[in-house]
Amino acid sequence: MRPRCARGRRGDAWCGPRTGPGEGREDVNVGPIRGASAGARGRRRGLSAVAVGVLLTAVTACGGGGSPSASEDGGKPAADSGAAQSAQSEAVVTITPEDGAESVDTSGVLGVSAAKGKLTEVEVKDDEGAKVEGSISADGSGWTPAAHLAAATTYQVHAVAKDAAGRTAAEDSSFTTLTPKNTFVGTFTPEDGSTVGVGMPFSLRFTRGITHPDDVEKAVKVTTEPAVDVEGHWFGNDRLDFRPEKYWQEGTKVTVRLDLDGVEGRPGVYGKQSKTVSFTIGRNQVSVVDAKALTMKVMQDGKVVKTLPVSTGKPGYDTWNGQMVISEKLKVTRMNSETVNLGSEYDIKDVPHAMRLTTSGTFIHGNYWGGGAFGNYNSSHGCVGLRDVRGGYDSGVPAAWFFDHSMIGDVVIVKNSDDRTVAPDNGLNGWNMSWEKWKA
């Protein structure tokens, strides 16, 4: 029954429960009764103090409150909800390295584990807000990063776990990775944003010999549009090339993510490179040189668009057989035999329209000194020659036409030469290796 507030017999305010007929009720006076004796006043003062306490309790009830143990609808006391909220989760979250750690290794250290519970959330970010990818184990007991961390970087870790009762426990941590004293980078070809021929691999040369090749290769991600399987192959310990099984499809867009920052390429030597490189595959041009017929058929999309007379390596200086990729274009250059370990055989200035096919010095180039050799006999020291003029000023000669219609990454195939097949690592010529060996 709701209490009410009313006036007493002498106009004094009182607040208390309503009483029914025949029920006893004692009015509570707030103030003293006028005309009472000192003794009476003292006795009433004592009663008044008790009454004030009753009054305050009743006024509280009038304000819509109630006893902390009473339910809102006046029924049985509510359960002690505070006890459940204050009970701690049994789950224990552990983050390594410890909070505040410095000079942390970039791999093999970061980890999160949970005991007496399962991890439900792990978030790791660097000081620029970039997330570190990782995965929680199937049983929820641990989390590991998917890749290495960057060097000289501060990371924040936030991890949450739940116990069997669904209660959560959370931990936060921060640490900083090491600053390496020795580093390496990879120089690459082709250039970012370039358009190249269908034979162009993505080739990386490292400034230090790599003794942890799997870790380095894992940090180089190649994606293509349309999608095609691309695999890497190591030549020695300082070069890593990527290519598909067959020549690229015309128009393919290739993106390479170099995530080498923090990769330990060899003991104590870390990568410091974080870069994205993109290039596009242009029209499909493959040219076939026949060292016996002394011709070169230039094909686009498998159709011959031009046949040009050539001269290849003379006996003893035969041109390599095999698939070779144009890696460099020089409008005019100087060719000296001493640079390719042939002594003083030749020193030719103003060589026009030169395009490199091998690291060892094989070019397909314009030739202004060959006389009537083109289409008739082989006369070079291993290069493929096309008729030209000194300095390359004449755009109508065969060498000028081929130079203008070629791009880096185009393929030149030589067949019917008396020399062996060019080595896959002599230039960008990995196409001379089977797909099975390339992937091995």
Brief rundown of the structure:
By secondary structure, this protein is mostly beta strands. Helix content is 11%, strand content 37%. The chain folds into four domains: 4-18 and 28-62, no CATH class; 92-176, Immunoglobulin-like, CATH 2.60.40.3780; 182-281, Immunoglobulin-like; 285-433, L,D-transpeptidase catalytic domain-like (Beta Barrel), CATH 2.40.440.
3D structure, described in words:
30% of the residues are buried. With 440 residues, the chain is mostly beta strands. The longest helix has 25 residues. The chain has five helices and 29 strands. The strands form eight sheets. The protein has a five-stranded mixed beta sheet, with no helix packed on it. The protein has four domains: 50 residues, no CATH class; 85 residues, Immunoglobulin-like; 100 residues, Immunoglobulin-like, CATH 2.60.40.3710; 149 residues, L,D-transpeptidase catalytic domain-like (Beta Barrel), CATH 2.40.440. The N terminus is likely disordered. InterPro entries: Big_10 (IPR041280), LD-transpeptidase (IPR050979), LD_TPept_cat_dom (IPR005490), Transpep_catalytic_dom (IPR038063). This is L,D-transpeptidase family protein.
Map the helices and strands:
Layout: E1 4-7, E2 13-16, H1 38-62, H2 81-86, E3 92-96, E4 111-115, E5 118-126, E6 134-136, E7 142-145, E8 154-162, E9 168-176, E10 182-184, E11 186-189, E12 195-196, E13 202-206, H3 213-218, E14 220-225, E15 230-235, E16 239-244, E17 253-259, E18 264-266, E19 269-271, E20 274-281, E21 285-290, E22 295-300, E23 303-309, E24 322-325, E25 328-336, E26 347-356, E27 363-367, E28 384-387, H4 398-404, E29 411-415, H5 435-439
Parallel strand pairs: 10-19, 12-20, 21-29, 27-28
Antiparallel strand pairs: 1-2, 3-4, 4-7, 5-8, 6-7, 8-9, 11-13, 13-16, 14-17, 15-16, 17-20, 18-19, 21-22, 22-23, 24-29, 25-26, 26-27
